Amino acid sequence: MSTPQKLYEGKAKIIYPTDEPEVLLAYFKDDATAFNAQKRGTIQGKGEINNAISSHLFQCLEAKGVPTHYIDCPTPNEMRVKRVKIVPIEVIIRNIAAGSLCKQTGIPAGTIIEPTLVEFCYKNDELGDPLLTRERLLLMKLATPEQLEKIAQLSLQINQILSGFFNECGITLVDFKLEFGITSQGQLVLADEISPDTCRLWDQSETDPDRRVLDKDRFRRDLGNVESGYQQVLKRVLEHSSNPSE
Fold first, then answer.
1. Domains along the chain?
2. Does the model's pTM come out above 0.70?
3. Residue range 20-41: mean pLDDT, rounded
4. Which keywords label this protein (predicted)?
């Protein structure tokens, strides 16, 4: 049987059609990029790890009432998802100051952010995914006011659920990126993935600012042991999913 022609290939995934018009197949790659793809590499086993983590977290969120595009995982590297029209906005949720926030504002890394900061970026590689105000997003008609309000509301709900989940895994959810899409029925749902590629995750048992990193910052900052960081997140997620505290 021939492989279907891909619909889209991004930095971390390839999207294929299926026999069902409203269902797509996302293939998770081992490719790694940083700094808007200026740095490239490979993280061995990343595709399978991110697919497994995303699968478990999507199911966790669905159980808590958050609509997602997730359907199931037919293979270790593949996820079946609902076909959606992606809203061209990247949402960044920040619980602790890190990364670009510190560079752009001078806020010391590690500063607790209260209340949680929700930021919007224009999903456009050519422009470098710029940070935009709500007014600019509305001016550009990237979303309706109602959609933007719903996205912000869902993002805070997701943050509350995931922060609690990771905390029970002994991991601090520092910040993370979300993407949303709209189904053919007009429902706004969480899309893309939730993984060490899209989250900053710190090991609560480590105080060293380098050793505690369990996410793509290990690749960005050349900290080494990138695969082991990702594997540690998966191990704890699977353990928590098998033995939930609730």
1. 6-80 (3.30.200.20), 83-223 (3.30.470.20)
2. yes
3. 88
4. ATP-binding, Ligase, Nucleotide-binding, Purine biosynthesis
